[in-house]
Amino acid sequence: MKGQLIISILFFLSSLILQGQQEFPEGRALFPSVDNWHEISVDPLQAEALRAIDQPKGQPWQFAIPVKVSLNPRNSGFIVRNDKETVWILPVSSKGALSLNLILSPFRLPEGAYIYIYDPDREIVRGAFTRASTAGTRSLPVMPVPGDRLVLECHFPGSHIPENSIGVSQVAHDFAGFFGPDGIKDFYYGRSDYCEVDFNCSANQNYLMASRSVVRLLVAGAELCTGVLVNNTGNEYKAYVLTANHCIENDEHAENTIFAFNYKSPWCDGPDVTNIHSLTGAVVRAENSDIDFTLVELNQFPSMVYRPYFSGWDITSTPPTNTFSLHHPEGDVMKLSIDDNAPMSTSYPVSGFITLGFWRVLRWETGTTEPGSSGGPLFDQNGRLRGTLTGGGATCSDPTNDYFAKLSRMFNVTTVVSSHLRPWLDPAGTDATVAAGRDPYGYNLSRSDTLGVFPASASGTTDSYPSPGWGFSTGNNSDGLMRYAEYIPFTGTGEIAWLRLRVAASSLLSATDSVRFYIWSGGSQPGPVIASRKLKLGEIRSGQVLEIDFGRNIKVTAPFYAGYSVYYRTPPDQPQPQFAVMHSSPWPTSTQNTAWFHDGSEWKPFNIHPSFPMSVSLAVNAVMVENSVLNMTEEPKPGTDRLEVFPNPFISSVCFRLEDSVSESTLTIYDHLGRVVLSAEYKNIFPGILPVEMDGLASGVYHYGLRADSVYYSGTLIKTDSK
Hints:
- By secondary structure, this protein is mainly β.
- It is built from 6 helices and 53 strands.
- The strands form 11 sheets. Strands 6, 18, 19, 20, 21, 22, 23 and 24 form an 8-stranded antiparallel β-sheet that branches. The protein has an 8-stranded antiparallel β-sheet with strand order 17-27-26-30-31-32-29-28.
- Strand 49 (662-671) and strand 50 form a beta hairpin.
């Protein structure tokens, strides 16, 4: 139906999340009553047959049937107009689908236009997609929406929609269950096989940096694979992702791929996560089917909150002594596979591939790989990239014989620039055989500061209501309180990278129970909302140090407030553990109070809490960053070979060997979460060894930033207890 309609309209203000992860509020979503749905026809017998197939490795894992369409404001949906904008609304239905997703093409938004995609219950909202947030993309794939119905809502300023500015070229019907087995939105994803091991179940911190380079690929709305961010010898800010050629075969596939970063359970055998950082679209730089690889460059560079890491690599002829792989079997959260032995140099046992171009993993001691793992990286004992998964026969019952295309052969398989890696990963022609990994935001993280009043060394506490009351003083409770804020004493102008909260308790009554985290502008009390993000309570556990980002760095000026609001679909009416955040021991005077609560009508300081009046600070801190934008002219010149760090791994102390004299130097050591654990300044350092004692640190992975006059060095340290 087309034209201007008189309808009853319900306005609502929602958290608007790019690809379900980032918040880009852009006006209000418009949700009219919808009776007429555009039906997408899929043969149920075809869907059932595909569901029953045991999909092999060596191809992407298909979860949906793509249906080509040509839908636009002229032939589908309906138009709503007011004095400021024109809105195209397209309700889409496909009977029996476990989820639906769209590819928007054409996609040429004018300034001021924005788009939402959501389910009829508005539990999942994708958007707002704007001209700025999509970086000039001509075709936009969108993350799936659960269920067999979704609504596309396109807002255009003015009285008309520009010709060829928006349309839908594909609807994908999910037959396998993108959101879990049979499409059930449960807390445990659990689609991959029984022997798969969650990344977070490993105590080996050496895998941490490598995991930040791994991405899940949603290709063309219907298939899932794995890829890896990879560094180059020029230390350029190039967002290169390497994957299998059978995953991304051409530019159309690359343009319509969604790259999800750090898709992991929050803890060992933990739940699936609702908020995933992702970017859309890429350009093919090199591809070769003879050795099954494709290198793409992302349309956008991943922001700091994505915590990207560009993997180092090794193309020497020396085989690894042992290997591990991080991957997304059947699109599941990141899994870890380990081979304690050296792989074998061999050929792929299928015709059409180059001779001796593969590493054969004889047997996985931990885990296995599955469809969806394709393109997943093979790392050696040093955490350097050695290959990507093509296929093989390994399963949980028989974890033997997986084949990874050799990175070394990808470098020299041909002389055609677009068919091998050397021009892209070694652009200066250094002929390097080993390249270090790179944290593009390491320098910024080393200069981060955690702002808050709650002491970092404090254990924290919370208050339980005595019977007949129930709940906690900093959570949902019998006083009817559920929203809390902490004053952050910041001056000037800066950016928030993420919030850090210490959770005292977390439990749920239903799957939809959640907590929304906020940043409010400052003043004598919390002001307007600057940013917000929702997490399901099933993703949070008691005792957790919870880190919350908002999809992008949040600009703030002067003091501000940070906090949360608890939401239970069915409000509890009896004593039981619920969500709460720790607070400090009471401060001596009321003037030291920095915690606030909302009583349903207004904000009040914690020292007039109805049941626990005291001056406290909530365990809510903000991590600020000085320079979040990659700018080579502002960043110190990267160091090259003037610094040697040894021993590494180390037990109690590490030495930095400098070849040149340095008048002023600053050394910062930070842990894998970006928290500064050591900072020191040195003057008049002469060529020689600078020893640094770090006996008080726990075993694990650390990162250093060493500023030596105008040169900046960064790298990774590993502390071990082994003698």
